[in-house]
Structures are given as structure tokens and as C-alpha cells.
Amino acid sequence: MLTAILALGTLAALFGLLLGYSAIRFKVESDPVVDQVDAILPQTQCGQCGFPGCRPYAEAIANGEAPINQCPPGGESVIVALADLLGRDPLPLNEEHGEHKGKMVAVIDENICIGCTLCIQACPVDAILGAAKQMTTVIESECTGCELCIPPCPVECIDMEPLEREIGDWKWPLPEHEVDS
Fold first, then answer.
1. Which residues belong to any copy of the 4Fe-4S domain (predicted)?
2. How confident is the model at residue 171 (pLDDT cuts 50, 70, 90)?
């Protein structure tokens, strides 16, 4: 029994050392500007900006390949924060990518839902629960309001509703920005 414990302890120590060395030796360095830009973006993973998610859009912004005004879910507050971070002038939201609607959440009418699971497959953040031919529901705290679950629904049982604001998440509206000529 003692030899088995010693053998397992030795193996655990060796694997720990190997993993520690590998973590240091093969560490992938990331661009801190990309990390900062990504932290500002709303993480809806909706693709409305023309990129497959928030991280690719953050990389494009940091590399100067995309403007800072392509994120409808983030709206003006994200544009202003990105402008401050990157030392650029704030731009109005590019209407080509959509309009800012505020925080929305998907609501499924369970009386109409047929349990096809197409919305579950479309959700980029796994905020929809259900199974084939069973009731499907949305986890409100996980839903980012990206609206990607609406187009695949064959019975149109999904609606987007504004998330009710509570005193803890209410913010003053941003002041109008004047553009210098």
C-alpha cells in the first residue's frame, strides 16, 4: 500500500513539474491592447459588426483594420470607451450594422414552440435550454440579446423584450458630443 502511494505521489510530482515547465515554455503572448478592447466590447458574439465575435472585432480594431463604431449592442457608450482607450475621436454608430436597442433578452412562447432545437444551435452563448420535442426556455442572465436565435425559428415563437432595469444597473445617459470642425 505504501509503495502504491509513493508511486502515485512521484508520478503526480513529475506530471506537475512537466505541466509547469510546459506552461512557462509554451506560453502564448497576447496583445494587451486587444485584451483591453475585448474587455470593453459587450461580448454578445452576435456578428453584427461583420466579424464572427467580439474577440476578432477587437483584434481588427487594435490592428487598425476596423473602425470603432460597428457594434450596435454596445452603442455609444462602447464607442466612447474605445475612443478614450485608443486616443481616437468618437464616431456615431454605423447604421449599416444596425441600431442600438439597449439590453434585450429573448423570450420563447412555450405554447407555440415545437422543440426543434434550431434556436439552441444558433445561440452563441448557450443561453437556451431544451431538447428535441421538449419545452425550450432562455436563461435570462446568460442571454446577450444578439437576436441570432430568431431567424432559424420555424414557428416564430421567439420575441426580444427589453431587459427591465433595476436601480443597481441604471446609468445616466451620455452627454451629446460636439465634433470640432
1. 29-88
2. low
Residue type, 48: Q
pLDDT, mean of residues 79-97: 91
| 157 assigned binding-site residue | no
The reply to whether 71 sits in an annotated binding site is yes
The architecture CATH gives domain 103-164: 2-Layer Sandwich (3.30)
Choosing among 1.10.15.40, 3.40.50.1450, 1.20.1090.10, 3.40.50.720, the CATH entry for 32-97 is 1.10.15.40
155: confidence class by pLDDT, cuts 50, 70, 90: very high
User: What's the rounded mean pLDDT across residues 56-77?
Assistant: 92
* Per-residue 3-state assignment (H helix, E strand, C coil) for 117-168: CHHHHHCCCCCEECCCCCCCEECCCCCCCCCCCCCCCCCCCEEEEECCCCHH
- Is 123 a known ligand-binding residue? yes
Taking alpha carbons only, the member of 173, 58, 20, 44 closest to residue 98 is: 44
